[in-house]
Recover the amino acids of this structure.
């Protein structure tokens, strides 16, 4: 089932989330619905707050970020990752920060360079509640950091410089109030006019 994505301005996007356990109601269905919702909106990640739930759950699929060669083939050595992260905790970030243009399904049509460190170590449970401690680098680390921010109540726009935030203020207000063209189902803070 495709769920509505909560737009910028929704209070759930600013709240820290709660851990869940393996008995969380209909967890596997929720994960399936989140994958369907993310793919429908052409995203590479989706966090539970973006579908209105204050729980520590997010998922990422970076395969679609991988470059294709001239014949349209992807590099088999770098297929990306497709993972579910439950109760995640980033325990280490390292390396020189680098800029990369990010966007967010909750903030459509807004993109901006965000500085993040290139390598992370993270602890999490997968969809079967198996524990993992892994390291990720590059685009995988970035997408994980972006989605992890969501479960901490942080949006990518929070990482922008004050001038860039001021330049985006009017566009963010239009998103908050639903005055934007829709490409996928969204839920706004105020009803569309």
């Amino acid at each position: 089932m495709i769920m509505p994505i909560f737009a910028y301005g929704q209070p759930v996007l600013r709240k820290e989330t709660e851990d869940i356990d393996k008995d969380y109601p209909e967890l596997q269905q929720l994960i399936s619905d989140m994958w369907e919702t993310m793919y429908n909106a052409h995203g590479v990640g989706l966090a539970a707050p973006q579908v209105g739930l204050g729980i520590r759950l997010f998922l990422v699929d970076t395969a679609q970020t991988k470059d294709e060669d001239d014949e349209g083939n992807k590099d088999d050595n770098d297929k990306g990752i497709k993972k579910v992260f439950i109760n995640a905790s980033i325990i280490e970030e390292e390396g020189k920060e680098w800029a990369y243009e990010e966007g967010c399904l909750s903030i459509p049509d807004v993109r901006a360079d965000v500085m993040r460190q290139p390598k992370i170590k993270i602890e999490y449970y997968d969809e079967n509640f198996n524990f993992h401690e892994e390291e990720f680098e590059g685009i995988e680390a970035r997408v994980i950091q972006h989605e992890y921010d969501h479960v901490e109540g942080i949006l990518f726009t929070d990482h922008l410089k004050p001038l860039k935030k001021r330049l985006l203020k009017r566009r963010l207000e239009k998103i908050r109030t639903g005055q934007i063209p829709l490409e996928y189902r969204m839920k706004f803070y105020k009803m569309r006019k």
